[in-house]
Description:
With 427 residues, this protein is an alpha+beta fold. The chain has 3 domains: 22-164 and 334-338, Aminopeptidase (3-Layer(aba) Sandwich), CATH 3.40.630; 170-332, Aminopeptidase (3-Layer(aba) Sandwich), CATH 3.40.630; 343-425, no CATH class. Helix content is 35%, strand content 20%. The protein contains 14 helices and 18 strands. The protein is globular. The protein starts with 21 loop residues before the first strand and ends with a strand.
Amino acid sequence: xxxxxxxxxxxxxxxxxxxxxxxxxxxxxxxxxxxxxxxxxxxxxxxxxxxxxxxxxxxxxxxxxxxxxxxxxxxxxxxxxxxxxxxxxxxxxxxxxxxxxxxxxxxxxxxxxxxxxxxxxxxxxxxxxxxxxxxxxxxxxxxxxxxxxxxxxxxxxxxxxxxxxxxxxxxxxxxxxxxxxxxxxxxxxxxxxxxxxxxxxxxxxxxxxxxxxxxxxxxxxxxxxxxxxxxxxxxxxxxxxxxxxxxxxxxxxxxxxxxxxxxxxxxxxxxxxxxxxxxxxxxxxxxxxxxxxxxxxxxxxxxxxxxxxxxxxxxxxxxxxxxxxxxxxxxxxxxxxxxxxxxxxxxxxxxxxxxxxxxxxxxxxxxxxxxxxxxxxxxxxxxxxxxxxxxxxxxxxxxxxxxxxxxxxxxxxxxxxxxxxxxxxxx
Length: 427
């Protein structure tokens, strides 16, 4: 954090009036981060220091922890649990994208957290502060922070790039009611899994994690080029296991002593989320995934959590329908972007707008020439030429558009786009 600002101008220029003011902004200590995260009613695991440290380790220090504590004139405070991803090279410096702030790694839920009850005035001040002081920021909003979700983002350099949503179950009604509200097909699938001898348990050893990783590799092989997102290394899961965190649970579905499905769950004060899952295709008929989720939802109810979150569905209707079968409801979690303004970024934005216009006119899945997708560059140029449109030069050195733009064009979640990571293209 030595190369980052240690103190902000404490009064950003207000874009909306507020009756209170910010009195101090300074880097937060790790203990402050932990305390506020534990006490915040709407925090998720993705707001935790532990989640940020996992990705700092995985990126070998390219992503660093940069939390800030904001204090208000009424005695309340809020924490910005940010991370900072630093990109090497001359080009990122020239176009102002060398330092990308992430409200939470991997485009998971972010935003401020607080142990105090924040009001709309606090949210206005925090939004203005973020806009003024973080010139390059990616932020998926927290679906459980109602105050932040009501903020208006029609202000300069702040845009909502993706009206995303997640599917979640409110657990306060109790498991009996939740189970009765599940679809008939899901209830039958659970009974079938039990009758077939499938069992569910929490992992207890590194061998269990290795078995799960083998299931994950089988899933990756099955998807092949259709894989949405990068393949995580074994070292990533090994690091999570070694942390021995009380906030992390790996659940496994087994058949004849063989792990055939599993899912990695995170939890915070009131939130329980399914972040990563995998299953072996040859055992799909045994319905292990249905039984596993059924048992985990039941356990989350027993432990007193308020929300069971399935996480966004990558724009895949089949996945969304599967979650809705458990009685999940849609919750908004849009992606907010604050972009640097300079000649290069403005030029790229104009090109993307033009390509979007062309795509609508052609009614096809034409992607931006500044983004890597399944369409080859030659095919993109051919499509452009065929419609008598000016060919746009593809410059691989300037692939600095963010995942949310691509998400609009190919209808999948930003964090699950193949070949992308942390909001920039990976060669």
